[in-house]
Structure formats: C-alpha cells, structure tokens
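Reading a protein record of the kind used here takes only a little practice. Think of the row as the fold of the chain written in a discrete alphabet. A record is reproduced here so that you can trace the correspondence yourselves:
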Amino acid sequence: MARAVTTQRKALNTVIAWAIGLIIFFPILWIFILSFKSEGDAILSPLAVIGSPWTFENYGVVQERSDYFKYFGNSVVLAFGSTLLGLIIAVPAAWAMAFVPSKRTKDILMWMLSTKMLPAVGVLYPIYLLFIKLGILDSRGGLMVVLMLINLPIIVWMLYTYFREIPGEILEAARMDGATLREEILYVLTPMAIPGM
C-alpha cells in the first residue's frame, strides 16, 4: 500500500515538474517560432505554426541592422575568457584554503564574499585609472579582467566547498608517488573537481 502511494506521488511530482517546465519554456519556444515568420504573418496569425510559410529573413535583418554575430562572438569570447582566467586564479586559491587551512581561512572567505556587497560604482574609478595606466581601457582584455574580478569570489567559494569534499588522502597518495604540487593540482585534483567547475 505504501509503495503504491509513493509511486503515485512520484508520478504526480513528475507531471507537475514537466508542467512547470513547459510553462517556463513556452515563451522561449514561442519567440523562436515567431522568429521564422514574416512580420505580417506574426501579427495576423501568431497561433498558426504549421500553416504559414517559414522564412529566415528576420535573421538577415538583424544581421544587417546591428552586426549581431560580431557582438555575439564578442560575448562568447568574453564569457569563456573570463571563466578560464577566473579558474586559473581560483583553483590554486581554493586548493590552499581547502587543503592547507589556517586560522584565517573562514575570515578570508567571508571577506571575499563581502566584496560582492560593495557598490560597483565605488570600485569603477580606481579600475578606470588603473586601466588607463596599463593601456587596456576599452579593450576586450580589460573587460575580461573586470568580468573575472566580479565573479572571482563566487568561483573561489564554490571550488572551496567542492574541494573540501575530496578526500585529502588521495592527494597525499599522489604526493607519495612523487607528484609535484603542480601535477597534484592539474592531474589529480582538477579531474576530480570538473563537475564542480
């Protein structure tokens, strides 16, 4: 009897989850479908999915008016670049806090998180002056550094909590097998932590 109730509850939860997912995803699907219709068809018969002809002219118009693919490419490069740069800095920092803790580790983590509470306007002027001196103002590299700095506290915090779940004995075994610190982080810790990255 209890098993039947549990199965029914799981089925009901699954149906509810799918319904909520469809409700959330429907506007995105709707916009995607409308993007393949001409402006007139979209206004006259927005519900007709199959009957009206589909066209790619809207994508051409977007590209003509704004050079969309160039800006999309910039966004992709900045997202991947700032993430990679953040991981290069955050992995050693999180490793040190997780496997070589000190009395101040918790304080440092809290301080890093507290920097997220600073108003962005308060730190823009010093960054602006620094970027002028370095000659990276209004460059992709400068923006990548800013994006990385904005997200660095969260990256370190998340990696720290993930690294703490990895048994230290595994890293100790790697050390006993002659692994250097760099090899320990690159070949032992990082592959185990990829799901957390």
About this structure: Residues 68-165 form one domain. The mean pLDDT is 89. DSSP finds nine helices and no strands in the chain. The CA atoms of residues 128 and 137 lie 7 Å apart.
